[in-house]
Amino acid sequence: MDMPATTTPPQFLAETHEVINVARELQDYNLYASDAALRDAVAREGAAWADAELVAFGARVGTAEYLDLGTQANRFQPELETHDRFGNRVDLVKFHPAYHALMGAAIENGLHCSPWVEPRSGAHVARAAKTYMHSQVEAGHGCPITMTFAVVPALRSQPDLAAQWEPKITSLVYDQRNVPAEQKSGITVGMAMTEKQGGSDVRSNTTRAYPIGAGGPGQPYELVGHKYFVSAPMCDAFLVLAQAPGGLSCFLLPRWRPDGSKNALQVLRLKKKMGNASNASSETELRGALAWMVGEEGRGVRTIIEMVAMTRFDCMIGSSAGQRMAVSQAIHHCSLRSAFGARLIDQPLMRNVLADLALEQEGALALTMRLGRAMDNRANEHEDLLVRLAVPVGKYWICKRTPAHAYEAMECIGGRGVMEDCMMPRLFRESPVNAIWEGSGNVQCLDVLRAMQRKPATVDAFFAELRKARGADAALDAHVTALAADLRDPKDAEYRARDIVERMALTLQAALLVQHAPHAVSDAFCRSRLAPAGRHNFGALPRGVDCGAIIGRAWPAAG
Ligand SMILES: Cc1cc2nc3c(=O)[nH]c(=O)nc-3n(C[C@H](O)[C@H](O)[C@H](O)COP(=O)(O)OP(=O)(O)OC[C@H]3O[C@@H](n4cnc5c(N)ncnc54)[C@H](O)[C@@H]3O)c2cc1C
After folding, report:
1. Which of 205, 301, 443 most suits a substitution to test ligand 1, by most atoms within 8 Å of the C-beta?
2. Interval 460-496: pLDDT, tens
3. Atom 17 of ligand 1 has which residue's CA nearest to it?
4. Which residues form the pocket of ligand 1, taking CB atoms under 6 Å from any ligand atom?
5. What's the 199 CA to ligand 1 centre distance in angstroms?
6. What is the rounded CA–CA span in Å between residue 356 and residue 544?
7. DSSP state of 208
8. Strand ranges for 26-88 from DSSP E
């Protein structure tokens, strides 16, 4: 066939168009220095001493190379090898080097231990700030970091085991080798409670614990059963719940037995998750696995709940961090993209959406960091009561708000926000996890009711905290009064629990913001979140809100 003659030179044909009006990657910026709300919170909640360290950390984790670790750790997902090529059972999970790099940096920076090793004023706040930044880079590796952090208070209920294990748990060395803990310079610890027949209701656990000798606290047992969700199965030990003769008890189960043989915790398969891809979560069986009892026999839930309280706090940090990265991505994109003749960030409706996303995030951060200070001061009764009640309140509300927030930020970016080479799909897929694990939404709400019923002083502490803001905003004062009245009404408490807990979260966030945030932020928060009419989507802020001030404060100052 004859080809048509062409007079156009080929190099001209290749230039189809100029790429204009597009954003660029948000990278090479300081995640701390560019975050005014975070800097304010760190200073306010008692960790001003950590400022220089946080500036350096924020610069490190905001580089293009560092942010790319998060991408790589999720693109190349962990793989399970149950056996080696000779047929020996090995139960090995292999991770991408980027995952190990993130784990290494987290551990070197004490994200798994700093408040236990240096329990100074502001220690939890400083750790929360670093965790908040690291989680913006990558959330999945935070699972074993959080569990390792959270195990310490629970383990301390068994002082002999704590003395033996704590030094390696709190070591600043990430030792990824699959060898017995005695040979390692640092270890990580996981948690295995959930079984097929019950996750929220762990009392339904059927895994059995058989005493090897006399039995009792600190004594060895053999565990037989299964655990349906075991995240980070490469941990060196796990806190496990199992039924001992005297009832559900807590155990410390090592990966290796003291004689150097492999402990009988077998990994059957890795979960196929919609998100949280860098973190391996497994299904396991315990085939006579050696473990030592932690705490009293039959008081397993009470022992492990110390760990769970910490992991719930970390869920608040993680979801606040997800919101922060989503806001940063959205504002950054809209500042560079124009439509219909103006930058998106200058268009009134988009300003409403962006400001609303920023308000949500600042409320989440304020509550999280306030509870960080409460964690630092648990010897003070008021602070301890606040931790008991406000952690499940915050865990419920912040984690539950994050999926909608991530989706809305994705929409700000448009079609490119849906593409896998954008960070938004990862943030979106990650967003439901914190709401579901460590006690799902309803379980948090029921825990709030339990705390209020069993310890009425928690309610007094909560309202004492709200009173610090009294008189600053009329809508907030009215909201507090109505909430107090509703809390006095015990009828249908379970049925109403979500409504109650949501209002508790919003009043506490508002009370913190009116005391500490710029007026533009607190005013808009109260007017939008405490209004009587329900709001269903972001971007419905009322007239008169100073969107420019709110967006300007949240702007990630990227190069
Ligand atoms: C990615 C991932 C990793 C995980 N890793 C671990 C791990 O390492 N270790 C571990 O032990 N577990 C882990 N889990 C399990 C997780 O903690 C459980 O999924 C969670 O506790 C819920 O338990 P469940 O799935 O059995 O749901 P269920 O307990 O069946 O709950 C289902 C729903 O019912 C609600 N509900 C429960 N009770 C009530 C009630 N009385 N009234 C009203 N509503 C109620 C819950 O809120 C939830 O929404 C992981 C889960 C995920 C998703």
Report:
1. 443
2. 999 999 999 999 999 999 999 999 999 999 999 999 9
3. 437
4. 190-194, 198-201, 229-231, 273, 276, 281, 433, 436-437, 440-443, 446
5. 4
6. 13
7. E
8. 79-83
Burial of 7 (0-12, 13-18, 19+ CB in 10 A): exposed
Alpha helices in 214-347 (DSSP H): 300-336
**Mean pLDDT over the full length of the chain:** 96
Tell me how far the alpha carbon of residue 400 lies from the centroid of ligand 1, in angstroms.
14
Query: Which residue stretches of the chain have pLDDT < 70?
Result: 1-13, 533-534, 558-559
User: Counting Cβ atoms within 10 Å, is residue 186 exposed (0-12), middle (13-18) or buried (19+)?
Assistant: buried
Rounded to an integer, what distance in angstroms lies between the CA atom of residue 373 and that of residue 383?
Answer: 8
pTM for this predicted structure: 0.97
Give the Cα separation of 290 and 203 in Å (integer). 21
The residue whose C-alpha atom lies closest to atom 16 belonging to ligand 1 is 437
Ligand 1 centroid distance, CA of 491 (Å): 27
The b-or-e profile of 406-422 (16+ CB within 10 A means b, else e) is bbbbbbbbeeebeeeeb
- Tokens found for residue 473: 């905003």
pLDDT, tens digit, 9 for 90 and up, residues 291-346: 999 999 999 999 988 788 899 999 999 999 999 999 999 999 999 999 999 999 99
Tokens read off for 514: 């009116």
Q: Residue 4: what pLDDT?
A: 59
What is the Å distance from ligand 1's center to 440 Cα?
6
CA 441 to ligand 1: nearest atom: 47
Report the chain's C-alpha Rg in angstroms: 25
